[in-house]
Amino acid sequence: MKQNDKIICMLEERQKQDIKNLNKAVTEFQQNFQKPETRREFDLSDPQSLKKDTPARLSDSDPRCTVSGLQKFLGEDLNHDQRVKFQKEQSREWSLQQQRDWKNALADQKFAEDLHDKNRIGLDQKAMELQRKEVETRQAVCAATKDFNRTQAAEFAERKMLEKRQEEEDNVAEISNLLRGDLLSENPEQAASLFGQHRVITDRWKGMNQDQLMAIRYTQQQQVLEKLRLQEEERQRNAEWDRQRIQAARAQLLFERHQQRLNRELRRALDNTNAQLSQEQKSKKIYLQEEVYSNFPTGQYFTQFNTTSR
Known about the structure:
The protein is an all-alpha fold. The chain contains five helices and two strands, in the order H-H-H-E-E-H-H.
């Protein structure tokens, strides 16, 4: 029974759907192929018959407008609707033209602002590039100065070390020669020379006269003077190195001041350029605000319509 009831419900639902589809098809056929205006008697009951009927007067040259018909009077303006429509169309065209002009002006202003931004960005990039080059130049100068000072210090230390080593070697050699030789042996005959009594062997001779002592003292004095001269030369070389370092530091300071002056001049030129661009932009904006579209109808325009109507 449940199965039968379900089948019956499905058949009833299908019948309702078929009836609905049939009614819909009939309605669509009537709407498409049986319209009221296709009937023979539609002209008798057409609600738009008066609107479809020909007007009593079409124009001033209508042959139906006779004198006795009272359809045409002097001073009437049959083109009033067309003229008003034409004026509205012309006003709309003027409004659209003004909108297009305003959009073009806005586009030109945006293009000028973009160009100004690009120029400003270019100037900023050039300033950053100059600043980067300045920093690199300063770093290179500092590195060169540091390398030069390090080289000078290394050479000075190496020279001092070599001098000290040479002096120590000379002292050791002198002490060794004194200890191993016969100079301290107290034997006066060891200084006797085979070439005569007036000659002695210098490395064995123990005594000397006053003149010989004076000669030795004179030689020692000369050695002292030579040592003082060498010390004075060393001092002068040190002073020259100090002077060169001071000159290098002074040149570095002058170079930094020159770079700062160039940066100030570049910044001043950039500010002047920005000020000029801003003034030009303001002038162009004022010019765009003062420009007004003034194409209004003239007396000749109305005279032409009056002549046409007559």
